[in-house]
Design a protein that fits this description.
Protein name: Flp pilus assembly protein CpaB
Largest sheet: 6 strands, antiparallel
Distance between the termini: 190 Å
Order of helices and strands: HHEEEEEEHEHEHHEE
Shape: elongated
Helix content: 10-25%
Radius of gyration: 45 Å
Number of strands: 10
């Protein structure tokens, strides 16, 4: 009986020893480190490239040379993203596909409406019935260099007294003429876009302002009916340009499609006096007639001593 109990106790002690040994072995192992989820690694180069791509604008360019008057296809075009976008450039392929350029265009040319429209910058700034005419100016005629494209000016004429002009005169020969350009600075075309690309950098803008202040020519939009009058005035005397107030809203009315050419012609005819002075000729001379005989020419009076007698020529 005692030996049987001893064997049972020995077995229990052996099992307990095995369990204790296993448990000690488990506790003696170092726990595995817990790793936190890692964020995806993004390189600095990729970040900078993504930011620059967002700041760029798509522009439609030609991938090869194209001849004039041939419709463009998708194979002729590509879209490139530029940091500095030319003014008025096309940004989508469907804006150019199927359209015909009016001149040969080289590969790499960016497209705008000018690529498909006839005429130069000045021709796109005037309407039918208007003419673009250049006028020479200096610091006085050009209002101290303060003129800008889009301003409206009155053209004044001063005639000095000389052998062909009996008395000096000053008058408005052309009222409310629109300035198209001052020097090489041009305004907007009739579609509202700049006729030529504006300066892109501050240095270019400063140089453009300096050239405008020293401009020696301006171009006016002149109604066709007043074109010869401006030419005569420029040759007959001294011109002056008088700037009109922006509060008159003349430019806004022009962009709204209103035509003031008839009003300008009527005003010019009303305000212009002694028009013959523009050609430097005097008024027609009157032929004297004998009293009681309309249309008859007066005889020449011949004086001999104390006697005087009319003689018929």
């Amino acid at each position: 009986m005692n030996s049987r109990i001893s064997m049972v106790l020995a077995g229990l002690l052996l099992i307990g020893a095995l369990i204790a040994g296993y448990w000690g072995l488990v506790l003696s192992r170092s726990p595995e480190p817990v790793t936190a989820p890692t964020a995806p690694v993004v390189s600095v180069e990729k970040t900078v490239a993504a930011v620059e791509d967002q700041n760029r604008t798509p522009v439609v360019v030609l991938v090869h040379d194209v001849p004039a008057f041939v419709p463009l296809t998708a194979a002729d075009l590509a879209v490139e993203k530029l940091r500095t976008v030319p003014a008025g450039s096309l940004t989508q392929l469907d804006q150019a596909i199927g359209r015909k350029p009016l001149r040969m265009l080289a590969a790499g040319t960016w497209l705008n409406e000018e690529s498909f429209n006839a005429g130069g910058p000045l021709a796109r700034m005037i309407r039918p019935g208007e003419r673009a005419l250049a006028v020479a100016v200096d610091e006085v005629i050009g209002v101290a260099g303060q003129l800008s494209p889009g301003d409206y000016v009155d053209v004044l004429l001063f005639l000095r007294q000389d052998n062909g002009n009996t008395e000096p005169s000053a008058q408005i020969v052309l009222p409310a003429m629109r300035l198209l350009s001052v020097g090489d600075q041009m305004g907007l075309a009739n579609d509202g876009t700049p006729a030529v690309p504006p300066p892109a950098t501050p240095e270019e803008r400063a140089q453009a302002a300096q050239r405008r202040a020293g401009a020696r020519t301006v171009v006016l939009a002149v109604p066709e009916a007043l074109l010869s009058r401006l030419m005569l005035a420029a040759q007959a005397g001294t011109l002056r340009l008088a700037v009109r107030s922006a509060d008159e809203q003349l430019l806004s009315r022009y962009w709204a499609g209103e035509s003031d050419a008839p009003d300008k012609l009527e005003s010019a005819n009303r305000d212009l006096y002694q028009f013959t002075q523009l050609a430097l000729i005097g008024p027609p001379k009157r032929v004297a007639t004998v009293a009681g005989e309309p249309g008859a020419r007066r005889g020449i009076e011949v004086i001999r001593g104390a006697q005087a007698a009319p003689q018929t020529p």
